[in-house]
Records
---
Amino acid sequence: MIEERVTSLHGAGGEVMGRLLAERVLPRFAHRSAGRIGLSALDDGGTVALPRGAELVVTTDSHVVKPVFFPGGDIGRLAAAGTINDLAVMGARPLALTFAAIIEEGFPIADLERILDSFATVLDEVDSAVACGDTKVMPPGEIDGIALNTTGLGAADRAISDAEARPGDRILVTGTIGDHGMALLAAREEFHLETTIESDVAAIWPMIETALRTGGVHAMKDPTRGGLAAALNEMARKSGFSLEIRESTIPIREDVGGLAEILGISPLEVANEGKAIVVVDPSHADAILGALKCHPLGRNAAIVGTVTEEYPGRVVLATEVGGRRFLDMPLGDPVPRIC
Amino acid sequence: MNGALRFADPKRARALADAIGTLAPTEPFKIVHVCGTHEMAITRGGLRSFLPETVDLLEGPGCPVCVTPAADIDAAVAIAQIGAIVCTFGDMMRVPGSRQSLDEARAEGHDVRTVLSAADAVDVARRADREVVFFAVGFETTAPMTAAVLLDDPPGNLSALVSHKQIPQAMAALLDLPDSRIGGYLAPGHVSTIIGTRAYEAWLGDRRIPTAVGGFEPLDILYAIALILRQHRDRSPKIENAYPRAVDADGNAAALRLINEVFESADTRWRGIGTIPASGYRLRASFAALDARERFSIELPPPRDEVPGCRCPDVLTARAVPSDCPLFSAECTPLTPVGPCMVGSEGACSIWFRYGGGRTLP
């Protein structure tokens, strides 16, 4: 009998992590709801009911990234944007964030200051504040550099879940797909690659706010770990409907697509840190697309698919060449092709 | 991305699909390809949804690590246990041997390393104070690289455990298996750039089997399928080149010269198929000093290729598709692979699992 251990796959956002949460985590909490959207929904955050019908949205996220400073950003920017984006895709204005750091002894103070400055810059971009914080230092070797945890508090008149896609709805993405994951892969030294790919890490609340004002948004999700493939599959399963995606309409940067081919990794399976999937009423689709495109972060936004009843809970990809196949939930982090 | 530039233009694909529909026979017709890259392109592009119901398209022995017999893996494990450093491609690590995979040998503390090429094994040998063995697997595409390294005055502590294989011989052997019912062959583009289209004549020339060499873009593959079906309809089987922008009749003379200098053909065992005459490469007598089998005298118990319950042998011989296997996607996944076809990233089972194969959507 092999002793069960946590593996990297349990944290990779795919099928294996989903099973861990459903079978081992959720059953242990008898009370897991403080409002309309509770822990069981496994959404980007949960809601707490407030007087007069408003909702407080709470989300939390821990961040480790290698390298800590990567093309297009760093762990501070990633932590702030990641938490704000989890609030944003629940339709919540980011009111305040917490900042907790676990730091390895010997970590350069100058690097810590850069990380803090990045975090602060993102807060300024969305007019939010840091409300409290915490610092722990670990002996050398007991943590790799620095890890951050951020909790976010947001306010919504009515929070938007990732489960409410309906047949006929249009599926939008707010920009190019796969940038963050491919930028990090390109930065790994064993590949000896020189590319111009930068992470898309950014706080998307201001852009999302313009889309919400247009009305007709039924569901949202940010395609982080596991990429577009994982996020679409979660939305399909939770809604009970089928998401049909046209591959040729998915915006992908040429350099990202090229690197993906070289490494044998699908850009649909790697993380994005400044994008959202927005599922909208068909009558509002063009207006929302227009609103997104007016924002600098949304200029490559596109309508990429439709919600149907054909294969409940599944994502169907109409391929570029005109074939069709299922786009399945990635198992875990994609591994580059070796030979 | 621009489909027209990538040989993936949907309009042209539709036109080819229409041609395929017209050419397809009314009785079942099985086309077999022998290349993991083909399977990847077919599954990722959803190309099976272009084919009429009567036309089946299956991967045969197209994944080099999958067809590597347990006996060769056992030899590599034994060499690692003796204390030598074994270098091989990452895909090879988890392929089951009779008792152990190389990955399991490494977990027990033996020195097994993944390399990206034969040249990397030379670097390992230069820095090592011990024997280093390069476990050389792959078809005619990787054999020239192994040959080049062995010809280029390798360090004295480097030797090769050669398990290279030749594809046309396997294509011929597959036709003779019971229940093979192969109607046509989509021949592999990469291998053909090395060996040329003429190399297939020796093994398939008198077998009257429609064959077309195909590239790896969606339109390349659909075009090759159309040619195969046309040969069948016209009862004029031949070896046709549907990938002329990369492949010619004679192949890559420099690569073939390297192969011939270092290797000679030998009968060899393929997992799932058995021993096929003249289908492998072994080192010529003049290179015996670089042969790991000569350098290390290894005595091994009889190998065991089959994994109980696993239908890899049928998948590797194109007599089953992955979803025919009861273990597929249940017990057997890329995380918990049972057979080699789920281990190798070019294996049909692994590709079907990762890219939504197993069900052709209309």
---
Amino acid sequence: MKLRNLWLPTSLVAALLVSLGLSGMIWTNPAHSNLSSRTKVTKNSDSTSNTTFQDIYLPSQIISTNAAGKQELLTNNRVNVATDLRNRMSHFTAEKAKSISRGNSKTYLAQLKRKGTVLMNYNSAISVNFFRKAFNNQLKVPNQKFNRMQFLLNDPNHLYLLNDQGYRIVRVTLKNNRSDKLRHVLADKMVKHQVTFKLLNGKVILNYPHNVKLRTYSYQLSQQTQDYYANRIMTTNSNSNVQIKRHKNSTDYDDHGFRHMTVDESTDTVNFTNYNAQIKSNSFLQTMNGIYEQLVMVGMPLDSVRFYSYDSGSDTAVFRTYAGGVPVFDQSDFGAIQMKVLDQSSYRMKFSLDSLQVPIPPVQSSATIMSTNELIKQLEAAGTHESKIQGIELGYEWVRDKSLPKVVDLSPTWYVKIGNQWENYRKLIGQQ
Amino acid sequence: MNFKRIQSIFLVIFIIMDVLLFLSYNRNSVGDSTASGSNNILEEMRKDQITYSKPTTKTHEGYYFSGNNGNTLRQDAPELQQQDIRFSGDELVSEFKQPLKLTNGSVKQTLDKVVADPGLIAEGKHYSYSEQLSSKSEIIYVQRVAQKPIYSRYCQIRFDLNGKNQVIGYSQNYLEGVKMLKEASKTISEERALTWLYQYNEIPNGAKVTWVHLAYTRLLTARGQYVFLPTWVFAVKLNNSSSTILKRVNAYTGEVIKTGDNNQTSNANSEIFTLT
């Protein structure tokens, strides 16, 4: 009798619980919300790209200083030194950071020359949070900007964060770090170029005291078609028609809303403006991540492309093609990709249709270029005064091969920054 | 009585609601599963009756490198004994004065000893036995670079067998002057390569993928040098056919590499074997 009375309320409660459970599953399962299905789609479409956030934001230079104080720039023909170092570095944690010095250029230069160290350099300042993501490490110190990290070979418990801006030195106390791993990487057979740090007009530059012999490269040029990008980035809004206007040397694509693309056929470059993107935030890491996501969305080949610099004044990030750890200049007047953040939701991206993917044997295996002092002397003789020089960097020159079609030769040369523009030194001394 | 009625009405409503919710949940998850992931492509392949063994998702590292067939074999030739040698282009063609007997099962052991003997085979230490490329009439040894085999007719030793299971001679190509053209870079996984190959319509219905290897193959020739890159090589056996077609996928980009002078077909057999 009692059971008969009870079955109705119990089954009602059971039905209620089942419906609650099912609704809960539908609401909480991320696969069912519209928002996440959109992110899933972008994830699928980037399957052509093998390049991760960690790959594109590698440090640009690795410099070791031995116990005798000899400094060398490290490259390797078989592996990418920066990737190798990042992958084999131990996973340390850090909690304490102490400012050691600021504003003193002499102390700063001495710190750069410190014996028994390894320096990892970026061309522009990055943040602690950014480093944590790029290196997959636990550096839990107050967020601050730095552009060099200095590891000590015989003291695993400390590391220095250095910032060229304001000559800031911060000492970080580490836990669980092992310097033997770092030493292992350095023990590999590497190509070493002797360098010294030097201050030129208040800027830290890398000085090559001797002639430098560098590998030359030849690549088959891969050229992406405009249609590829037109289909990929201009036809996202299904409601709108993309208007195409052809000019003599260029083609305009406009979706009457958020996106505009111009392809310059004389230089094979694309100028893409997107007014509907989550791009900028107050955090450097978020901005860089936003930029990376947009690169993946646009879908250019990123195999040899890496972060070069970020100018916080103009909110512009530059990415360059790298060969053997050295940046390539002259691919276009801006590098491989230039990303200018306009405001929180819009940006303008310039990129080249050309990319380097398949290397072929070069005509000559290496080329020698003069020392930095010799360069400065020659520039001086040609009327470019030392005080005008904002930077000097070793780079590869992008030249189309004369005998083979669709082949680009990369040969090493000096690039000098003058008036905020990188120029080949030969142009400055009137050879070009 | 009245309360009981209300309870039963509620029960009916909730049961209907449960059914609807369950249907909607189910439909969502079905729709979701067709929309994404290589697992579903693999599922689709099963539906097309394509047989394959479960592909790995591991990525590897590999190089671009160049090399050519130069003079090394000609320089080594005077050292070789118990055989008659001639050259056909850069290829060394040799006939043993006494055929080598092979007992079944010990093909590899017997020939490994031959290949390791500098008096019999030049530069033998650079080659290793390839079970997959070998057939009943031909045993193939492939050259290795950076711990990976090169599948190319430009760097193989091919032992010819007669009907009595005897090795009568061999022909050999040797790749020399190997130069790395770029630092090591990551490759795509076998699973990714397999799904790409299928999506490019390179695996017909009912076919069987008999083996998959990550091996270097030749991409192009430039400035007199062969340029090699890591590729996923798939052996595809067609339905109702005894022949196996080798297909290759660029292990960096996932593109299917076409073979032949006019780059017409994706059949890589002529690139990997010397076809007679």
